[in-house]
Write a structure and sequence with these properties.
With about 140 residues, the protein is an all-alpha fold. The chain has a single domain, classed as Up-down Bundle (Four Helix Bundle (Hemerythrin (Met), subunit A)), CATH 1.20.120. It has four helices and no strands. The longest helix is centred in the C-terminal third of the chain and has 35 residues. The chain is elongated and about 55 Å long.
Length: about 140
């Protein structure tokens, strides 16, 4: 069962972050202040899908990879704490901060500084999660 749940949760997490990242970039480049506020509100609501998906992928990955010592498993074990810390320490607080500022119409230096940090951290998580997905696929192929 975990072998099915883990990749599904991982892809959901990846797609959610990708959607947040591209929506943010698009709204900043092509939308109005009201549009940016809507995107920030939707991202905050999307956390109710992202956070459980990431918890599931982390917990299931720990169980599935507990005894594995191969290179892809080691890579996944190294990247997951970075992904989790990045999400909990940077991305989640940034989502709350940016939504509050955007809904109040406060598009000041602090907003854009945090927005820049969020885009960089989100991009880093996308890269790390993409590599983890690749490594997971390699592990499945090696098992067959």
């Amino acid at each position: 069962m975990l072998k099915r749940i883990h990749p599904i949760a991982g892809v959901i997490g990846f797609m959610m972050i990708l959607t947040f990242w591209t929506s943010t970039a698009y709204s900043e480049l092509f939308s109005t202040a009201a549009g940016i506020a809507v995107v920030k509100a939707m991202i905050l609501k999307g956390m109710f899908v992202l956070v459980p998906a990431m918890m599931i992928v982390g917990a299931s990955g720990m169980q599935l990879g507990a005894r594995r010592k191969d290179a892809p498993a080691r890579a996944k074990k190294k990247s997951m704490p970075i992904i989790a810390a990045n999400g909990l320490v940077i991305l989640l607080p940034a989502a709350f901060f940016l939504e509050a500022r955007a809904s109040a119409g406060q598009f000041d230096t602090a907003f854009y500084l945090v927005q820049s940090i969020e885009l960089i951290a989100g991009g880093a998580n996308l890269v790390l999660m993409g590599l983890s997905i690749r490594d997971g696929r390699r592990m499945v192929k090696a098992r067959r």
